[in-house]
Amino acid sequence: MKLIPVQWCLAFFLSGLFMNATAQSWTGPPEKPKERRELQYGPLHPGKRTDAAMQRFREYGLGQFIHWGVYAIAGGEWNGVKAPTASEWIRSWSGKTAPDNWKATYDNLYKQFNPVSFDATRWAKQAKAMGARYVIFTTKHHDGFCMWPSRFSDYTIRQSPYQKDIVRQIVDAYAKEGIDVYLYFSIIDWHNKDYRSASPKTAGEKASYQKFLDYTRNQLFELLNNYPQIKGFWFDGTWDKAWIDSYAFTYQLEKDLRAAHPGLIIGSRFRNDEYGKRHFDSNGDLLGDYEQGWERKLPAKYEWLNGNDWDCVMTIPPNGWGYIKDWSPFYTKTSYDLIDMLMHATSMGGNFVLNFGPDGNGNMSPGEDRLAKEIGEWVQLNGEAVYGVTHAPLEPNSYGYFTQKGNTLYLTVFNRPVNNLIRIKMPKSATEVPTAASLLVSGTSLKMKFTDIGLDLDRNIYVDITLPDTFVSQQPFVIKIITKSGKINAAELEKAHM
Ligand code: FHN
């Protein structure tokens, strides 16, 4: 079993304090019920998508998330209000000592939003150098502030001193660097007076909520029309009862969005079925194109994924997606931690998406700059094991993570054994067998031999790969193993019987 570093435990403990109820109980997809239920509002397409756009999504490996909005001005602390662990939620802070009119104060912050240092090209180039193949950008978070000049709202970048369309700049700059763009969109909208979390009951409430639904629909089509280069939406804030009860509306909306933008990618966090089941419908089938529940968490077992596509979105501090001006109270993940998580995700067929929370002037924090550089340097050397790879059907081991591409296996080593012998377990019945091993970073070929360690009744064979004493690495490194179709001659190795 892989040991979890102490700092991870701490980080998970701290972050656990702020997890929502769904996240706390997350252990993978629910078991499929024995009997199928007839559903009118289940998945729009049965099974996994096989088109080129979805295949491209599968091959990203590494992505960047950006949470940017008015909350960046506060940076987790404003007027004595502190929300360092979820800085983008600061508006909803309602402790006993909340200043009078705190929400109104927040709602006026946009009048100061003027990120003079913002340069989308600089961000896009940094993301490219880090190795990100896609970006997810917050067009509108829960506070309702639109980072594009939406004609359906009076609370947008157009009304701020900055005025210019930020979404357009992001889309253009990232697309120019060859990075695919996905737009984050929160259904929760604290600014819209027709938004509500509880289900509407009276005729008046219903009419008002219908207005909110229409506004949401209009904004989504506006985004598609304004920025046709985008590849998908990343939805959030879809857990309110009012939204859950609007399943007929959301079903039609998803259908229409997809029809308007062929290839559009939407995860499992957009809508639910008629029984209120989110992510997976009442039959345990995935809603949307990929599983979107892996927020600040990673599956312990590949089996938990049930063969679905997925992404893991991750913060650098324990929690907190928007800018946090003071990281010092927390453990912040190192590039080593993040590369470990990246390879954990890709080894299980998922994408790893690292979040950045730029400040109110348009700068990434120095810590983010450093991590982007360090990750980029590593990925530059080891990208072959990261991009376009799939899960390898081998038993997990304590050295690190396997990924696979065709007849090449990659083992990214985080824990180097003291005897320099990497021992890989394979079933004797395997039909693909290793023929050569080398260090990815240098191409140096490595000694490899099949070993029967003589464990009684063992159905496995062991492939021993020797690391040269002269090879020293301060970083995780990758062993590249070429396989070919064939059988291991196990009979020779099985002479001793009880
Ligand atoms: O409440 C948000 C949170 O602020 C952040 O945007 C994350 C990103 O995945 N999503 C929500 C919590 O699940």
UniProtKB/TrEMBL annotation:
UniProt keyword terms in alphabetical order: Glycosidase, Hydrolase, Signal
Name by which UniProt lists this protein: alpha-L-fucosidase
EC number of this enzyme: 3.2.1.51
Pfam families per record: Alpha_L_fucos (PF01120)
Signal sequence segment: 1-23
Coiled coil (UniProt feature): none
Protein family membership: Belongs to the glycosyl hydrolase 29 family.
UniProt cross-references to InterPro entries, sorted A to Z: FUC_metazoa-typ, GH, Glyco_hydro_29, Glyco_hydro_29_N, Glyco_hydro_b
GO molecular function, one term: alpha-L-fucosidase activity
Segments forming domain Glycoside hydrolase family 29 N-terminal: 40-384
GO cellular component entries: lysosome
Domain of life, source organism: Bacteria
BP terms from Gene Ontology: fucose metabolic process; glycoside catabolic process
SMART domains recorded: Alpha_L_fucos (SM00812)
